[in-house]
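Notebook entry, structure prediction.
Reason for the run: the old model in the group folder had no record of what sequence produced it. Starting over properly, with the input documented here first.
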Amino acid sequence: MIREGLAARGALSLWGCVDVLVKVNNRFKLPAAAFARYLPTTPQTHPGAGENAGSDMSTSWRISTFNGALLAAYFIPTWTTVALRIMISPIHGLYERPNIAVALFISDHLHLAAMGTVRAAWLLALGRLTVVAFFALFLVFLCRRQIRSSGGSDEALSIALVIGSIMSFAGLLLAYHVGETAALRLHATELLLLLGTAIVFLVEHPEGPQVDERAMMGAAGGVGA
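New structure, fully documented this time:
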């Protein structure tokens, strides 16, 4: 038994050599590569694991994502307030500054009746609430790091940007047509915010999943063994 223990200890001291054999008994010898499976092993730590773990949050946030979150922080409370005022009092809410251009265009050129004006006001409120809903959905997707890093929240942001840009551009044209300077500045500012985020969103691409080369090599070695 003492000789067998010395033989096993001498074989273990030559760890890492392919030709090393571990003597189990007098008639059977186990290769060191196979014997390593039955020894307690400690997990190998990657030298840059801590740095990569700390940078996951920073790398998953892109410029377009951060800019979209800022836009959502502005458009959700602002457009929700405007839409709720229209729903509570359609005529009074339609003649406020964010909607004054649409109201003057309807009254001066379309000559709609009172009920038609109320329906147009409700349609405008529905469009604003749709943009708010997609911005809110975008913020919900941002709470999941996997969805945020893979670009799964881009669809909600793109739909909000498209609908919001169309509505702001239409309000800009109507404000210019009726001569409302305050409404023109408001719609122009909102349109520039939406277009700036859209340009960054189109230029920037989502990052693909990062693959650790050492982990892939270890997995390949385990399959080969």
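Summary: Confidence is low (pLDDT under 50) at residues 1-20, 53-57, 209-213.
The old model has been moved to the deprecated folder.
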